[in-house]
Amino acid sequence: MAPIVVLGSGLAGYSAIRELRKLDRDLPVTLLSRDGGDYYSKPMLSNALAQRKDAAGLVLVPAAEMAEQLGIELRAHCEASSIDATNKCLQTAQGELRYSRLLLALGADAIRIPLQGDAANCVMSVNDHGDYARFRAALHGKKRIAIMGGGLIGCEFANDLASAGHAVSVIDPGPYPLASLMPEQAGSRLLVPLAALGVDWYFNTSVGSVDAAASGYTLTLANGVSLHADLVLSAVGLRPRIALAREAGLAANRGVAVDARLRSSDPDIYALGDCAEIEGRVLPFVLPIMHAARALARTLAGEETQAVFPAMPVVVKTPAHPVAVLPVARDAAGSWQTLASGDGIKMAFVDEAGRMSGFVLTGQYAGERSEMTKRVGMSLAG
User: Which of 15, 206, 260, 261 has a CA-to-CA distance to 284 between 20 and 30 Å?
Assistant: First the structure.
């Protein structure tokens, strides 16, 4: 029998296989990895300095050991160039490979915004283990770091780098940190604690050009301000990898379009993780991936199962001012209400029916996420 083939050795790919092996040890599985296939925790890339770990130290299980534990064939440094869905066949860097069912766990690419300047191609991004190894090598001996992007990843890197003694400048077109996740009353709470570590903030502007200087780089911002940096890191977001799926004729929007069973428009092809759009939603965080992987494993083992997602708060790794947030859609009907304020803020998003459908907790309140999660869907008065 042709194997189940998994494209991608990140959290999504390995989680699906691990959950499948809890149900069936005998189904043949082949994993294709564009890199070496080592297992590591991607969320730990943005706080590795605080953990005193270099790139090598972030590897939790080497590829060969993962393959042995899971009973799979692992093809490292092997990408698929095309999918022949009619004949259930992949063209790969290591030849043709047939599949019985195919899981796309391809992840996402770092967004690269167009920049002017003779050093625009020197801007770095960290989206995987290899990127982080190159970043750490480049970081050696550098003092001032510029970060493009004040969202979750940008803030986490800013906290990690500043805590390690680097001077950090964060540039973001939004009006305050984490603007896509929470209201200004909460996001602005990060400004002073991170500034105390050595973070300078530049909001409502963006980087226009990056030019080589006698030492490091000169950044010219859209508002005319010039900054000096020894290293420039872009953290402006991710774009799901959907080209392979589209070329194969699969439905794709922001991500590969799948239903609640993670099944694409082809009944034998599934998608999971950062590359997937599950019933119209892209859910890139760890907890949704884990829940979806368990459901998908049951489906692959023969028991059709829909992924069900409970309330899943996101923890932002900014120890200078901790944050936990259960985001709501940008067009959600309702309003944010402040429940408490002190060394941090506690806020709830209340929908038109008076029920709490989201929350944000910062500072002293960040540890209350379990209690707040239990109250989701309830009236605040209840």
Answer: 206
